[in-house]
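[agent] plan:
  1. take the single chain provided in the ticket
  2. run structure prediction with default settings
  3. attach structure tokens to the ticket
  4. add a short note for the reviewer (M.T.)
[agent] executing step 1
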Amino acid sequence: MGHLSTHVLDTMHGCPASGMKVLLQYLDGEQVKTLKAVLLNRDGRSSDGPLLDEASMTVGRYRLLFEVGNYFRARGVVLPEPAFIDVVPVDFGIADAQGHYHVPLLVTPWTYSTYRGS
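[agent] step 2 finished; step 3 output follows
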């Protein structure tokens, strides 16, 4: 039953962050392994389903990298160089490989918020 998902909402425009690139990484001490790269669909979610499914869920440390700056530039938002927020890293742990982990992101070019969703 375990899986990992994300959902990104662009609170500047009041819509899902369609087209944002998100990387999922596994953190193993000093080593970082990229597991998946996705472009979010029109609902601000991965079209491929969960980022990790039941078969690939393991206990450990993970990172999601949300490419916020590129997303807002593509939407025509003029950002300073360097952008105030460019890439948002969210580091989190999976302690229960059978659990449901949902990591939503609410974002503008100047602020973001995340939490463990349901």
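[agent] step 4 note for reviewer: Residues 68-74 form the longest helix (7 residues).
[agent] ticket updated
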